[in-house]
Amino acid sequence: MSEPLAKRAYTQIIEMIFAGTLKVGDALQEAKLGALLDMSRTPVREAINRIQAEGLAKKSGRFLRVRLLAPEEVEEIFFLRRELEVYSARMALKLPQQTIKAMQTRIETLLQAGPGQGEEHWLVDEDFHGMLTGATHNQTLINTVNDLRLRTCIFDHTRVKGRFVKGNQEHLLILEALAAGKEEEVALRMAQHIDNAKAAILEKLASFEAATS
Can you tell me the distance from the alpha carbon of 22 to that of 67, in angstroms, rounded to the nearest whole number? Predict the structure, then answer.
């Protein structure tokens, strides 16, 4: 019952952070936010727990307080993602052609439809990266990449303009190289995809810091 409300609470709290209504260091108090959002404490608590899991809040004293990823953290996250996901992309060369084709079709359909308001963009992105890491059959690697992706998932297409189209086009280029069996091209395109995502997030962070300083 509380899941849709928790999602709405999460979205609104994140928007408050990026709008500067909630500043770095501010306490995330369930009762206060619940009153502000006209919600009970339960969905707000779920939203705050998600925000903490994504690294946008840390415990300080009695409260969880707003924090933002530092550029150094972004560099570290994407250094690991680059290493692990380039390796995963190479391993994905053994995937069946029909699996690659099915993912191509999903991404092409998504590009034609646009991001919309639903979850399809998230699901396709998650399934694309999951398809590649899954090809390694290494559960520790899979879990690590999932955790790393979680830590920057707030920087989606709604906050990093242009990445919806560019990111999906990059996915298609990777799949094209996979279908052709071109290992070095697969590795290069995956590395470029990770680097481009990192650059977009660093640019967003820099613009946010400039606007709030």
Answer: 10
DSSP code at position 160: S
Query: What are the residues whose beta carbons fall under 8 Å from the beta carbon of 59, sequence distance 6 or more?
Result: 65
Two structure tokens written together for 160? 């990093």
- Using CA atoms, how far apart are residues 139 and 158, in angstroms rounded to an integer? 30
Sign of the four-CA dihedral 193, 157, 37, 6: negative
Domains of the chain plus CATH, in order, are 3-66 (1.10.10.10), 71-212 (1.20.120.530)
List, for residues 18-56, the tens digit of each pLDDT value.
777 888 889 999 999 999 999 999 999 999 998 888 878
Tokens of 171: 């996915």
- The predicted model scores a pTM of 0.81
Tokens of 182: 């071109």
Neighbours of 136 (CB within 10 A): 19
- What residues are paired with 63 via a beta bridge? 60
Sign of the Cα pseudo-torsion (62, 68, 69, 71, in order): negative
Q: What is the dihedral of CA 200, 168, 73, 137, to 10 degrees?
A: -170
Enter the DSSP assignment of 63.
E
| CB contact burial 66-78 (16+ within 10 A = b; e otherwise) | bbbbeeeebeebb
Q: How far is the C-alpha of 100 from the C-alpha of 175, rounded, in Å?
A: 6
